[in-house]
């Protein structure tokens, strides 16, 4: 089962798997797909450790790295150096843009649920990490020092100089797009692959459904290969994406409940029990619309007394310590995570290899059914 793109990348299957967990990334690549490590939550030093581990456990198979380099943030910090001292200064400056009303709102939620403060010896930093162009560039530098096959941007087109740098290192690039307009912007920046992501997807996503978006993007970008993302969790959906013109499937949510995943064990039961209606597209996490599990935390941000979320990266800076406090306190009613509407089909915990092979078997069966109809 190959497409021109999967053949070019040396894959057995045109299946791409985004995950923040290195074990999942390596397992998908070993099974014949391409695992892609989400780098946004890692410092450059931590990312180096993760990629070194993947290099040792991927059996020489290709894998990728995904960064976040938003085209616009507020206030702009794109001119700030990415050196550690400058990053610290940038974080301090950005903290001053967070209104007291928002800090009080977060404090009120935590008080309502009796969430205690972090102990004095805990890490109190919010870790801006890779939510800006300036902080993502060091991650790119680390990634390109490893034998990655793909560098992807999860939010905003990769800057032209980053695309050129990746190409000089023999690495192909990909950009996520939620509309034909965004896809064309990605192509203009020089990326090699467009990931057309429908609104069903987990994480940052637009408003157009996958079934509508894929053919629009395929028609908009000409010869540039397109991967389909958003609501793909079985082989029938994968076959539908290919029928719409995609050269592969980009998946994410389904890997949250595999045996190898490092998903918080207190959240896993919530994912397994959730229906496809139990997600919400909210700015509560990062300041940009991101589909996530609906919780009492997301409900609070949609309430009448909410001051409304702040722009990226201020929202994440505002709430990151609150999430650590919630996790430490075990207040599961407030605990969620980015996940797509496919969560309604994520009902069991299985090994990565089993999930991959079932996807491919279901894909083959779907194609056989279509061929039988055509022949008839």
From TrEMBL:
Pfam families documented for this protein: NMO (PF03060)
GO MF terms, alphabetically ordered: monooxygenase activity
Xref: Gene3D superfamilies: Aldolase class I (3.20.20.70)
Domain of life: Bacteria
Keywords, comma-separated and alphabetical: Flavoprotein, FMN, Monooxygenase, Oxidoreductase
Entry-linked InterPro entries: Aldolase_TIM (IPR013785), NMO (IPR004136)
The UniProt record lists the keyword Lipid biosynthesis: no
PANTHER family: 2-NITROPROPANE DIOXYGENASE, MONOOXYGENASE RV1533-RELATED
Protein name according to UniProt: Nitronate monooxygenase family protein
Species lineage: Bacteria, Bacillati, Actinomycetota, Actinomycetes, Catenulisporales
